[in-house]
Amino acid sequence: MVLKVQSALVTGGSSGIGAAVSQAFAAAGAKVAINYHSGREAAEAIASDIRASGGEAFAIKADVSDEGAVEQMIATTVERFGRLDILVANSGLQKDAPFRDLSLEDWRRVIDVNLTGQFLSCRGAVRQFLAQDERPDLSKARGKIICMSSVHEVIPWAGHVNYAASKGGIMLMMKSLAQEVAPDRIRVNSIAPGAIRTPINKDAWETEEALRRLLTLIPYGRIGEPEDVARAAVWLASDESDYVTGTTLFVDGGMTLYPGFADNG
Ligand code: NAD
Known about the structure:
alpha/beta, Rossmann fold
């Protein structure tokens, strides 16, 4: 119960990695606000499962690219739980196209949700961490932020330029913010998942042939599961990682190890 009675907000908690993080946080003793955009039923179901197991959780709708909606989401979380100790800025989407066909609309939407959405969520969390009383009995840090990045914060990705740009942006937003708020004892880190079995990348694992091709990029020889990422998030949110800030934890089965060079290049 390393997150006992801490209050957490997970954006995009209705699906995939965010759903697994919400469940793992609850199992670790946290109260969890589960944000969704369109997946109301899924978010409500996760919240109700957590409550049925004796935990505290509720689902909350917000488009993370909407400033007012993010402010309202954080205010509601604080109203319900009394405070905010942990933010997981996880919401993200892809709108893929060859660069020459990439529309301004799809460029903007991906940057708005993946990067601006994390900026707005992080800013709201930092403001709340600084406004509330410290609770050293709950957490050594005054507050913790985990940004959900991607291996594509460092691996270029043709055909997904908007997505890779958003994740590269998250890398330096996270590090710059971590530098700025470390004196306030707010820890800010990222998780960079490799290929995790969720709806966002279904095309990459749903057929045997696609999975075989994907596995050539993963030295560890298996696709990741949302729980692999959730366990890392629990650690990064807990006092176990109290001296860790401004870093990206790659949870990728070795995808960033240049597997093409494994056999003498
Ligand atoms: P997913 O599609 O299952 O989940 C994405 C979540 O983001 C959903 O809950 C969705 O409702 C939410 N979302 C989308 N637009 C939103 C908006 N405007 N406002 C609020 N929420 C919104 O995919 P996932 O794989 O669980 O992705 C979660 C995060 O992990 C994303 O940031 C993604 O880029 C990142 N990631 C995933 C993988 C992977 O292999 N699955 C790899 C690297 C990074």
